[in-house]
Structure formats: C-alpha cells, structure tokens
Design brief:
The structure is a homotrimer. Helices cover 26% and strands 36% of the residues of chain A. Chain A has three helices and eight strands.
C-alpha cells in the first residue's frame, strides 16, 4: 500500500484538476493493477469526478451550486467565517469526500473525458490536503 | 484482486439495476469476505444505491432531478450535445462515481431493499462501462 | 481485513456522530496504516463527512435538505410510509452510502474539524446498521 499526500494551495473558489498528480502517485506506487483512493480531510472543499474537456461545464456546475446554495443566504444560522461559510459546507455535502478509482496498466482507469478535481468552496485562498492511497 | 468490466447499453435516461451483475462478479471472484468497488468512468452517467422495491421511488428521484436540473435551462452556457448535456453533468455531480460495498459470505452485503443502479442521465441511448473490483 | 458492524438506534431525523465508533473499530483492527470503509445498507439513512465543531452547521444542513426536499411534497408519487418517505430517499441520493478514509498511526486520518455522521432521514426512530471495514 502506497500513500502520497498532496498539498494544494487554492486561489479561492474553483475547481483544480488533480488528475496529473493522481496519475503520478499511481506511477510512483508501482501498482500495475489495483485501486486508488482519493480523500479530502476538509468540510469546505471536496472532490468531483467531472468533465475535463470544456471549461464551460465547470462554470455551469459552479453557477448551479451558486443558485441552490447562494452566499449570504439569510436563512443560514451559521456564518462564523463569512457569507461563503455555510454554502461551502452544503457544496461539500452534495459532492464527494472520497472516490475510489480502478488502476490498470499502472494508471488510474478514468474515462476519456473524466478528470478528478479538488473543489475549493471558500472564496478566500486555502491550503488543502488530499490523501492518495494506492494498493 | 478480481476485476470485471460490465458493458451496459442504455435506452436513454433512466435507472438500470446492476445488483445482479455485481453479485455475479463477487461470486466469480471467489472472495468470501472482503470489499467490492463499483466505478463508472463517465461524467453523464453515475451510480445510485437506492430503493429496489417500489418503482415509484425511482420515478420520484427522476422527477426531483428534472426539477432541480431541468433540460434546456437557458442559464447553462454549455449545451454542445443538446439540452440534456449540462443537466447530465449536474446529476452526475450530485450522485456517485464510485461505491464501496462490503462482501460477506461471498455476496455483496447490501440492505434488504437496497439496489445498486447505473443512472443514465442522457436522453439518447449510450454504451456505458462499469468497473467492478473485488478484493 | 477487519470488520465491525455497528448497530445505531436513532431517535428520528438527525445527524449522529460515528467518529468515536469508527476510531474504536480502527484501533481494534490493529491496522496501523491502511484504509477504512464505512457503509450504510439503507436507502433512507446515509453518511456525511461534515463539520463537527459548531452544531449550527448541522442545523443549517438539515434546513437546506428540508427546503430542497420538503416533507409531504404533493408532487411525490411514492408516500407509502408517510410524508417523510420520499424525501428520505432524495436525501440519501444526495449524500453518501460509502466513504473510504485513510488510516495512519492506527487512527482514521480525518481533518481537524471533520466528523463522520450517520444521517437518519426518517422522522420516526429506526435501528440502523453501519458496516466498518479496515484493511
């Protein structure tokens, strides 16, 4: 079992593609056929297995989230860290904290247009951890 | 570690139960006690662990998705493949790309009324892959 | 591979923290470095990896779910078990049935403010199973 912890500095809300880092970790593990778990130990950032070709898809996903969980919604009781605090928890709840991907031929067996993204849900930059485990 | 790739031809939007195929893969693996990962390498089809008894539950889940991510929503920038293109990505985001199920006594340890479904989110038929790994 | 099945009696709708039980299972497994899968074999209860410090976060998550999937919504066809029946399936769909957490130093490697919760989505008390597997 091989583990690599990624440290990702975000520039505020948005999707950051991790596919290259995950592929590198799988390569370094020397596992030819197996599985790879990606885990985010945060509650205001999460994972997305999403379309990696057209950037307009990511803009539309972002816009969807902004509509169903708008910043500064007065119905939220919790706003200790600002108007984007509670929406970040809702967005995390609606997406993933862990994804398990097959490994074949020494590579993560993702779809042709499928990428793995870290989604920063806070508007301010943060330093995020991502734990990749290959076995 | 045992792997089986399922190829599923969909007839357009809807839920297709995979429980039988997953149970067969677990049986073929000869793993008595372990785990089973189900993974979908697509961004407009996904997985659901849902109620498998009353079909009205699946119709209501479908109706819910149609309400929060309606086809042809003019607010979407991305519609390269038609009015159901971007809603399919949103539905994928809100459900799962991977599920890890315990295996006990040579069978996936699902709940009594719990089935694993492939959810085709596009309105046109597609050929979809599902990767089952047992260990 | 180590397995422990938790039996949780809920008191109706709400979030019950499982972090202590999962940490205990990982400890009992004697696995120092590995992975831990948490699985819920139900379709009206699910898992959340969420903020564990301020209870107002959980109240706001609950309120969000009540807004997007209100009890007694007349558009639901399925209401065999009451007005909270179909909303419970929608809430399960939008959250997780399985989460895979890294194990390091004999403990689940969760974030500082990240807890694992069982979310009871039905308004009546239920007895729920949670399957923890460590390897």
């Amino acid at each position: 079992m091989f583990r690599r912890e990624l440290s990702v500095t975000t520039t505020g809300r948005g999707l950051i593609e991790l596919t290259g880092d995950i592929t590198a970790a799988v390569g370094a593990s020397a596992v030819a056929d197996g599985l790879c778990n990606v885990f985010v130990p945060h509650t205001s950032a999460s994972l997305l297995a999403g379309e990696n070709w057209d950037p307009s898809v990511r803009r539309d996903l972002e816009a969807f989230m902004s509509r169903i969980a708008p910043d500064g919604d007065p119905r939220h009781e919790h706003d200790a860290e600002g108007p984007d605090d509670m929406p970040a928890h809702i967005r995390t709840m609606l997406t993933q904290s862990s994804i398990v991907i097959p490994v074949a031929g020494g590579k993560p067996q993702l779809g042709t247009w499928q990428g793995i993204y870290l989604w920063e849900h806070r508007t301010a930059p943060h330093r995020r951890q991502v734990v990749v485990t290959v076995w």
